[in-house]
């Protein structure tokens, strides 16, 4: 009986030590005998190369066809261009479908597998498929739905009400009709709205009169860097050479010009004809008015609205627009990449 208290303390210490050590046993086993040596799976939205899946699918089709003869293999089914597309069992295709020429479907099209066209591709209204790759031009009819990605080496047009949930890319140009939805798109030229006319490249205007007196209230924070704690207004027709930082909202009136970058903690408003030759960074929403131009990248935590006639980047120097939502009016033009993290819509 006299040893009972000592035994109890020993037992309590052993149990406590066991409770403390047990959580580290899996760590010890993993360190001694690693079981997770494979590379981590990267989500499709996180791959930096916007054409990654199109290039991988192209390589897969070429390798499969080269190694399995002229007809088919276990992963690719070939549709001869001489065979009517309407006669092909699209809905029952369990393998990737390769068309050895141009694809023109006039009836309904609902395919559960990716489609490769060795030429142009014309899809009907209401087509449904996970992915599309064509070596020519692609015309996706109204209400087309692509659940993963689509790419054309030439010009790709998406009809009214069409939706591509992930990546939409083209080697020459993209044309998105009104009501179409997108997430991440890339092309040398992106037309929001079906149009054959491209906006003229904006020319750098000569420096105007000196900045108005109220800009002297800005606090210099480096060579050609100006900062304000609150809102900033650059009056119509004036220009600022340098980087403009504001803790509030920045508004560029009509034909105002910034030879540098703009960064606002809240919102940015560009009225008709305003230009920013550098980057545009904003913690709120950005409104880019008619006939405006931004030459550098646009990074926005909120929504970006592109008015008709606005232009992002140039064909010679493409750029990137990234925002939570992108609302682009018909007639807006972008060069490079547009990434809407939540949703992108072409409005009338």
Give a written overview of the molecule.
- Mean pLDDT is 85; it is low at 69-73.
- This protein folds into two domains: 52-192, no CATH class; 213-347, no CATH class.
- The chain has helices spanning 4-21, 25-32, 52-68; strands spanning 76-79, 96-99, 103-104, 115-117, 121-123, 128-134, 138-140, 145-152, 155-158, 163-164, 167-170, 173-176, 181-192, 219-222, 225-228, 232-234, 239-241, 243-246, 250-252, 257-259, 262-264, 268-270, 275-276, 280-282, 286-288, 293-294, 298-300, 303-306, 311-312, 319-329, 333-347.
- It has three helices and 31 strands.
- With 348 residues, it is mainly β.
- Keywords: Membrane, Transmembrane, Transmembrane helix.
- The chain crosses the membrane at residues 6-25.
- It comes from Massilia litorea.
Show the helix and strand layout.
Elements: H1 4-21, H2 25-32, H3 52-68, E1 76-79, E2 96-99, E3 103-104, E4 115-117, E5 121-123, E6 128-134, E7 138-140, E8 145-152, E9 155-158, E10 163-164, E11 167-170, E12 173-176, E13 181-192, E14 219-222, E15 225-228, E16 232-234, E17 239-241, E18 243-246, E19 250-252, E20 257-259, E21 262-264, E22 268-270, E23 275-276, E24 280-282, E25 286-288, E26 293-294, E27 298-300, E28 303-306, E29 311-312, E30 319-329, E31 333-347
Parallel strand pairs: 1-2, 2-4, 3-5, 4-6, 5-7, 6-8, 7-9, 8-10, 8-11, 9-12, 11-13, 12-13, 15-18, 16-19, 17-20, 18-21, 19-22, 20-23, 21-24, 22-25, 23-26, 24-27, 25-28, 26-29, 27-30, 28-30, 29-31, 30-31
Antiparallel strand pairs: 13-31, 14-15
């Amino acid at each position: 009986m006299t040893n009972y208290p000592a035994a109890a303390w020993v037992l309590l210490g052993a149990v406590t030590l066991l409770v403390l050590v047990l959580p580290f046993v899996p760590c010890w086993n993993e360190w001694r005998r690693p079981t997770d040596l494979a590379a981590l799976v990267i989500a499709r939205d996180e791959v930096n190369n916007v054409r990654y899946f199109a290039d991988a699918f192209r390589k897969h089709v070429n390798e499969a066809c080269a190694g399995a003869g002229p007809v088919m293999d276990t992963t690719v089914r070939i549709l001869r261009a001489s065979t009517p597309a309407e006669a092909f069992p699209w809905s029952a295709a369990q393998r990737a479908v390769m068309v050895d020429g141009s694809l023109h479907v006039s009836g309904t099209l609902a395919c559960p597998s990716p489609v490769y066209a060795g030429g142009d591709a014309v899809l009907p209204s209401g087509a449904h498929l996970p992915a599309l790759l064509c070596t020519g031009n692609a015309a996706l009819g109204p209400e087309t739905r692509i659940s993963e990605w689509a790419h054309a080496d030439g010009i790709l047009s998406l009809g009214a009400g069409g939706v591509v949930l992930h990546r939409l890319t083209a080697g020459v140009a993209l044309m998105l009709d009104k009501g179409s939805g997108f997430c991440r798109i890339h092309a040398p030229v992106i037309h929001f709205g079906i149009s054959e006319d491209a906006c003229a490249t904006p020319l750098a205007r000569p420096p105007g009169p000196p900045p108005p007196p109220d800009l002297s209230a800005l606090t210099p924070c480096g060579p050609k860097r100006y900062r304000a704690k609150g809102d900033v207004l650059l009056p119509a027709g004036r220009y600022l050479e340098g980087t403009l930082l504001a803790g509030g909202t920045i508004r560029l009136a009509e034909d105002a010009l910034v030879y540098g970058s703009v960064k606002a903690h809240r919102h940015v408003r560009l009225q008709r004809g305003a230009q920013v030759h550098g980057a545009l960074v904003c913690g709120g929403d950005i409104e880019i008015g008619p006939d405006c131009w931004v030459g550098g990248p646009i990074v926005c935590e909120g929504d970006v609205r592109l008015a008709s006639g606005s232009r992002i980047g140039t064909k010679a120097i493409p750029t990137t627009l990234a925002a939570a939502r992108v609302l682009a009016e018909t007639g807006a033009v972008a060069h490079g990449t547009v990434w809407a993290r939540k949703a992108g819509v072409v409005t009338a």
